[in-house]
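lol so apparently i was supposed to do this last week
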Amino acid sequence: MGYVPLADEERIARKPHRCIWCGESIARAEKYHYASGIFQSDFQDNHWHLECFGAMQREVDQADYYDPNDGFDAYMHRRGMTEDETDEVGRQEQMEGVESENGV
Ligand SMILES: [Zn+2]
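anyway here it is w/ zinc ion bound
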């Protein structure tokens, strides 16, 4: 069966949502990306910050092979960043933390 897309569009939030990419909240009245579809006879719908949807698309572009149905871990990314960018920022923050501890 696979995946049958139903909606893929920008919307204005009428109530708060949680972004599937970064896990942060999407505020009421904020513009966001909405995607829904039928995956193996189950209805699913996901809400994205616009910059998070952009990050996901960048990640798809970079990947040799990408399955959007299980291609990423929900809520595990920094807002608006790909997985690689998320890891890179995490490394930088760790290094800065070590430096400031040594600097005392
Ligand atoms: Zn997000």
